[in-house]
Every structure is written in structure tokens, then in C-alpha cells.
């Protein structure tokens, strides 16, 4: 196994239900997608299925999409009492204990399951880069804020921690890997989908105005991450090798990049029968920055803002630190890094924001 693959396999979201508690914005993104999901479902209703099979891919602990599936079930129950199955899938090192507890009503989250007759859930440790369901079994697949994670890191960047700061050959390597991964994701899904079935995918993107996560005006979040880690190198806290290994295995597609395999008639995806129904971009404002505009307490803002950032990048940054360091030393470096960032936000909160920039797309299998 290559070093880059080990790095990619090190990705985890915060466990124990902390991910959904920290990522209020991710829930808002899904809430915005709910009408699109209901519209896709309505287009399938004429088939009068004996049972419905849905997938929630890259589900993490499942808390952010509870209301989405509650709406889906309510919509189906308005006309029939068919059996409904929701398959929650994420990589094998996901916190499935938290997922199971949330779904089965053992936490503070309000699960739909206990109040829903003829509804079952299943959990799968298969990522969206592999088969999740049997052939031709899926009615509607959903994923939000997940497919920007690449299957591997194509190259460790030399002067930034994210592809949004990459140029030249480094940027090209990321683009090539992302194109291959996107094609693979779609080919895995078309295998599972029934003819006429739909996918609603909500992915981080670079929009028509050049905006992306944490770069919607004000401080560029990824540039700040990078600057802080470079300062840690300059101060001798971490090595250059550790800094390079902190490259986040992510890619933010443009609308054109998302659309290409679904529009080009000679692409394997198009030939397999997938078609792009429509695609649009949208920005969901950072809920913590919005709250700060009301309460004006910079320390409170920093305390609320940091957990959502740590929830998705701490495992990568921590995993990049040398195993020759003691666990205690690695923990101290990570805490020092996030404390540094917290102090920057608290001292100068203006412009700090993790606004979400997504492409919302509906895809159909026509054959």
C-alpha cells in the first residue's frame, strides 16, 4: 500500500455523534437539497414500486440527513404503505456505533425510524468507490458533502495543503485523479440503479464566481490553514515532510467537470446510461458567522466555529505527524495548531467564515 493510500485511508469524521453536532451547516446544505430529492422521488412514483430502496452515501453519523429521510418517508406514505429501506454507507472506519445509536433513537437526535412503519435501515462499510448494493436494486441514491474526498492523494503538495492552492503539474495531477474518481463513482452507481432511477448528489464545488468552501469573501480559510502550518515549519514545530503529508486528499470540481462524463456521448458513464437532468450551484452561509453577526461575541464565535473545522480535517493533519513522535507530542502539536487558529478568529473575527459552496445535481439512469 502506498503512502498516499495510507494517508487517504486515515480520513475520519468526528465520532460519537460529534460530527452532526458540530456541522450545522452541513445539515442546512441537505435541507436545501430536500425539495430536489422530493422532486426526483415524485418522478418515480408512477412505477408503484412494491418496495423502495434508497442509499445515503458518505453518511458519517447520519444525523445531518434525518430530516431529509423523514420528508421522503412522509411523501411516500401520502399515497402508499410500501416497504422502505434506507442503506447508509460510508468507509469501513466510519463511526458506525454513533450511526446506529442515532438511527435507533438512543441519542439526543430525533430519529424518524421509531415513528415509521415498514421502514428498515441497513449500514454498509462500503465506500462510494466500491459497490454498495446489488445490481438494479436502487430507486434513489443520495449523497451530500462527501464525494470531494479522493480515493487517494495523487501527490503531496509542496506549498499548500489543499488543491485550491495548487498550480501547474501538481494541480494537473489532482484534476486527473478527480476525473478518474468521479467516473468510478458514477459507474459504481449505474450498476446499482434500476432503469429510470435517480441520483441526487450534492458536492463541494468551485462555482461560476470562483467561490469555494471557506472562500466566499473575507479570509480564505484554506490559505489560513496553510499559513499556520507553514509557520509551524518555520518555528521548527513540525518538519517539512510532515507539512507535505498534510495535503488534504480533496478536489472541488467545477460544474463543467461534474457534467462532462454525463454529457459526452463517448464517455463510459454516458454509454452506461447515466444522464444529467440538471445542475446548479448554491452557497449556504456559515451558521456560526451568521450567529456572530447577531450576538457579536468573538470568543463565543471562535468556540462554536472551531469544532466544525476540526470535525473533517483533524484526522488528516494528525495522521501526517511522524509516528516517531510520541502520541502525547502529536496531540500537543494538534492542540497548539487549533488553539492558534482559534485565537486568530477570536482576535479578528471579521471575515472568518466557512460558507458552503455546492453543486446540486440530479442524475437519471435511462437504460
Descriptive report:
By secondary structure, this protein is an alpha/beta fold. The protein has one domain (3-365): 3-Layer(aba) Sandwich (Rossmann fold). Helix content is 44%, strand content 16%. It has 13 helices and seven strands. The protein has helices at 3-9, 18-22, 24-42, 66-77, 96-103, 168-192, 221-234, 240-244, 255-263, 268-271, 287-295, 298-320, 327-347; strands spanning 51-57, 83-89, 119-124, 138-144, 193-204, 274-284, 356-365. A seven-stranded mixed beta sheet has the order 3-2-1-4-5-7-6, sandwiched between helices. Helix 3 (24-42) packs parallel to helix 4, helix 11 (287-295) runs antiparallel to helix 12 (298-320) and helix 12 packs antiparallel against helix 13. The radius of gyration is 21 Å and the shape is globular.
Write the layout of secondary structure elements.
Layout: H1 3-9, H2 18-22, H3 24-42, E1 51-57, H4 66-77, E2 83-89, H5 96-103, E3 119-124, E4 138-144, H6 168-192, E5 193-204, H7 221-234, H8 240-244, H9 255-263, H10 268-271, E6 274-284, H11 287-295, H12 298-320, H13 327-347, E7 356-365
Parallel strand pairs: 1-2, 1-4, 2-3, 4-5
Antiparallel strand pairs: 5-7, 6-7
Helix pairs in contact: 3-4, 11-12, 12-13
List keywords for this structure.
seven-stranded mixed beta sheet; 367 residues; 44% helix; disordered N terminus; alpha/beta; 16% strand; 7 strands; single chain; 13 helices; Rossmann fold
